[in-house]
Specification:
CATH architecture of the domain at 221-371: 3-Layer(aba) Sandwich
Shape: globular
Largest sheet: 9 strands, mixed
Structural class: alpha+beta
Strand content: 15-25%
Number of helices: 11
Order of helices and strands: EEHHHEHHEHEHEEEEEHEHHHEE
Radius of gyration: 21 Å
CATH topology of the domain at 221-371: Peroxisomal Thiolase, Chain A, domain 1
Strand order of the largest sheet: 5-4-6-7-1-8-13-12-11
Distance between the termini: 15 Å
Oligomer: single chain
Number of strands: 13
CATH class of the domain at 221-371: Alpha Beta
Helix content: 25-40%
Bound molecules: octanoyl-coenzyme A
């Protein structure tokens, strides 16, 4: 039995924030903070804050803009966070809503109807509530049967989700699976933190996974190699969770947002990922010359350039290792799926590709694909 990715979908939020807009708000906050705390700063009791800069952001990360679910309040210096009207239990929740849009597109691309889907996996960095599962809400919204569950693996959720889907198909517990990645990340960004205020955006992606024999989509990728890997690290961390309210004194502390040691992540994750891809290519008997696309996790352009060079043994052409983080920023697990969704033109039957995620945990996952 061969399992394939037979269709993908993408929901892009309607609002976009440029680096200049984000930096202007951050720098207004810096001015406000330094003015309000001038005396303490003068006395050496507090450190003055420094400006952020669009030039730094673009050079250090490659990010130029990001799409968001709530622009106005993120750029309001007195708020600096998205705000959403809480929906009633009878309304479709926001994360389910954007997941449904991406899922419908993926089903259309794969020529599938809701009746064909018998498993839905919502795989992402955060779910907006603990239960009922977002996946079960989406199952109802789409009118699918079968079963559904949520899983969280930070930036590797989508690829780990695809592997879970493939295993469900191989075991016979499902025939056609939707893996949905509704990544609403902006609520977890500390917009007052210069090191991380620029990193993430919101998005949703979806993929249909099925047996090769039932696939009729126009762009079908057969999974010919797969390996997830994890290794514990505190270098990317968020302590947000259901027990926070039990410690009221630290309930809203900065560690409840996304925090990372970016340099350490860079240094530690690069060899982990390069080795993982090399081992999977060897196992699938695929050479660097065979690889026509590298669909990599979209966190940092310098990281992707490094991995691309390591895998191919030369600098990849832009078309070989598509970059979407310039426009979308880091969208956690959805990033490599956006690249796959947008950049499959020009592939011909038999071409090989690598789909690879890496991020918090640490967690990484490499799928070797063959274009059908
Ligand atoms: N503007 C101007 N200067 C700045 C800014 C800024 N905004 N920020 C930092 N600087 C300064 C620093 O103060 C430092 O100054 P100095 O040299 O005087 O000390 C200098 O710039 C260099 O700082 P860094 O060393 O931190 O800069 P880097 O070149 O390392 O770039 C990056 C920072 C872009 C963060 C980079 O380290 C990076 O991308 N690392 C890899 C990160 C990565 O891949 N992380 C994966 C995390 S994503 C994930 O797993 C998903 C988690 C779940 C989703 C969470 C949703 C919220």
């Amino acid at each position: 039995m061969s399992v394939v990715i037979s269709g993908t979908g993408l929901f892009t939020p309607p609002e976009k924030i440029s680096n200049d807009e984000l930096v202007a708000c951050f720098n207004s906050y810096v001015d406000k903070f330094n003015t309000e705390n001038a005396q303490a700063i003068e006395l050496g009791e507090l450190e003055a804050l420094s400006y952020s800069s669009s030039a730094f952001i673009e050079k250090a990360s490659g990010i130029k803009s990001r799409y968001v679910m709530s622009k106005q309040d993120i750029l309001d210096v007195n708020l600096m966070r998205p705000t959403f009207v809480e929906r009633s239990n009878d309304e479709l929740s926001m994360q389910a809503e954007i997941g449904v849009v991406a899922a419908k597109q993926a089903m259309e691309a794969a020529n599938k109807t809701p009746e064909d889907i018998d498993l839905i996996i919502v795989a992402c960095a955060y779910t907006q509530r603990s239960y009922p599962a977002m996946a079960i809400e989406i199952q109802q919204a789409l009118g699918c049967g079968g079963w559904a569950f949520d899983m969280l693996v930070a930036c590797s959720a989508a690829t780990f989700g695809i592997i879970n889907a493939a295993n469900a198909i191989r075991s016979g517990t499902a025939k056609t699976v939707l893996v949905i990645n509704p990544e609403i990340l902006t609520p977890q960004i500390n917009y007052r933190d210069r090191d991380s205020h620029f990193i993430f955006g919101d998005v949703a992606t979806a993929s249909v996974i099925e047996d090769e024999s039932t696939a009729t989509g126009d762009h079908v990728f057969k999974i010919i190699g797969e390996q997830p890997i994890t290794q514990f690290s505190n270098n990317i961390r968020s302590n947000i969770g259901y027990m926070n309210q039990c410690s009221p004194e630290t309930q809203h502390a900065d560690d409840k947002y996304f925090i990372q040691q970016g340099r350490k992540v860079f240094k530690e994750v690069l060899p982990m990922v390069s080795n993982l891809i090399a081992s999977q290519m060897e196992k699938a008997q695929v050479t660097p010359n065979d690889i026509k696309r590298l669909y990599l996790h979209q966190a940092n352009i310098n990281m992707n350039n490094f991995i691309g060079k390591k895998v191919l043994g030369r600098d990849p052409e832009p078309s070989e290792a598509p970059i979407i983080l310039d426009e979308y920023a880091n969208t956690s697990s959805a990033g490599c799926i956006i690249a796959l969704h947008k950049y499959h033109d020009g592939l011909t039957s038999g071409d090989k590709a690598v789909l690879c995620s890496f991020g918090a945990g640490y967690s990484a996952c490499c799928l070797v694909l063959e274009y059908k």
